[in-house]
User: Fold this.
Amino acid sequence: MNPTRLLASLALGAAILATAGPVHAEQPATDTTAPFAVNARLNFRLTYPRFLRFRVGATGATVNLMSFTVPAGNVGSGTPVAPTGGDAGGGTGVNVLVYGNNGQVTITATNSSGGLGIGTATASDGRINYNQISSVSSSGQLPAPVLTNAGGTTALPTLNSTLVTQRTAVWTYSYLNQTIPSAGTYGGTNASRGGRVTYTATMP
Amino acid sequence: MMTARAAFAAVAFAALALPASAITVVVADGAPEIALRVGATGGTISQVSFAVAAATAGTGTLILGTTNAAAGSAQAPNFGTACAGNNVRIWARARSTAFSPRTATLTVNGSGNLTSGANTIPLTNFGWVTSGGTEIASGNFTGSPTQALLSFGTTREVSVCKRFQFLNTTIYPSGTYTGQVTYSLQMP
Assistant:
């Protein structure tokens, strides 16, 4: 036999022997020759969905109200004022979660002020610009959008792998207190006053 | 009279040893042999399916596997009752001649992955709950190619019913993932 063909035949035979092993097509598989060895296989099949999950603040239907109270002695001083009403950081922040599995998640912010800032419902009171509301994330991998009257910057959570994002953080808010607005209650649960921020996460 | 009482006791024990789903049964000695069944009898490799819901993906909510009735069917004559629904029967027998005991060892290779294209889910994300017996304890795949499950002496049959589960603690890309585990029974 041609030596090359012989080698090829031997290699093929060895490959068949190596893959044959003790696996038996019929079950129960049996072996009556020492050393005894039988294999049996089991197939797994898992269907995994495409999804995007996003949470800012309390779970459920609650919309957190971040409430800032500025002491008269500090108005316009530039001393930041921490809020209450969050579900993290002793009320100064909110828990944020973003889970997704189909590529880069993008988080954007819009608000209900129509680009004007937060008001009291009385036009003559003026507005508080959203640039006075600071939001800082506890994680650089899940940054918070910088709020503006127009909405805010875009935030890009860091992907865990090519397609998967699995990030959590606490976003902490403060009122920067760098201006002197009219006295009054700005924003609140009445979205028409401009105080409602909506964060939106999108994924390809 | 003593002999008669002893015989009656032996019969009663044998009757109790006929299990519904899992236990070790002493069987007759004979020419050395081992036998193994995982899932359905015959030439079919049983499949366990998992479907993860978007609402619970990655939350740690256990996703129970499903399979057909054949995967948990009875194993006559000593295991005459089928496993509960969606359970997989694992049955093993090790036989040897009288006065020549041997020990059989059952292992599983859980070192691989389920794959969907280039994406993978390690088998270590899967486990099982054993029902009807303790011969193979409930647990998870460790990633070892020779994860020890059970050792037992001749001449015996052992059978358990397993409900497999996906641990669901990590997020994966969407897709349909497939993979295979191999159980091995060996005896010197």
Chain B touches chain A through 59 residues (CB under 8 Å). Residues 1-22 of chain B have pLDDT under 50 and may be disordered.
